What does this fold into?
Amino acid sequence: MPLPPLSITILPTIEAVTASQWDSLVDNDQPFLRHAFLHALEASGSVSEATGWEPCHLSVWQGEQLVAALPMYRKHHSYGEYVFDWGWAEALERSGGRYYPKALSAVPFTPVPGARTLIAKNVDARAVRGLLAGAWREQCESLGLSSWHLLFADEADVTAWQAQCPELITREGVQFQWRDRGFGDFEGFLASMTSKRRKMIKRERRLVAEQGLQVAHLEGDAITSADMVHFYRCYAITYHERGRPPYLNYDFFERLRQTMPEALVLVQAYVEGRPVASALYFRGSSTLYGRYWGSEVVADCLHFEACYYQGIEYCLQRGLTLFDPGTQGEHKLVRGFAPQRVRSLHYISHPGLAAGVAQFCHEEGEHVSAYRDAAHQALPFK
It folds into this structure.
């Protein structure tokens, strides 16, 4: 009996499919693509039309079976993306065009590399991508969207889309990640480094303790609602110090605590038994992801301890081989985080803007590549 043909549907919310259907397509190492994570974003109101993130997820079906999906949003600004295209928007609008709304396939507020196109193993991946490409192109044409952007896709996903749609413009970036090289434990990690950097890290960790701070972590169901309340207060401080409201609200984090606790690791710093700082990590099957941080106190080197060294120790203790501490920061390089290429893909319907963006991305990519090579040479290992 022949299989039913493939068909595509646009989902106005992630709730339009069940968690079991969606999660059957998601790799165990990617907590941010799980139904519970995306649902928490939408159900909390952190992601909505009102906040400029209008869900329109693409889903591919074979009869009643979900066989592929692509998270997608109609965006009315460029906040919370971490691949900056404000200059492109200004250029189009100066010439009389309109850049917003646009289409975006990414995890909101989450610059973490990984597969973005979720495809079951038993279907024709090229046929699926053809359907998905037709859908985002049709959205651009029928709704007047200026562009479609695929952000922080992993190398396999990027390569497949480049083969499927050669007109896509590639933009390169750099992030810093830690990988276990068989260190064994934190002392083994330090022993692999140059004397200068080994002494620096030991001094930074000692300084945290000398300020009367103790640091510990909680996991899963051990994280209480009170812990999450305190974490959120610290997280919000980080934004308020910059004069901005937080992207994410408390309800989002509390939903994660209730629906996917097994993916959460909470690092807390204490003074005399009272929590004063907090960092929230996520764990996959082989990767630890550092995501959110904040502190009620000003303490030298506490950020390095809570967001980097605690993460490295956790990976070494639990057998996780990769630690992604989040975007930005050459300061990660001297602490053992190596530069990694990240790529995004961009479809721009306006021919003139597309040509200008392609030239810009080509020139920028040459500089990014040279920077990445230089950063590799500066790694602090013997």
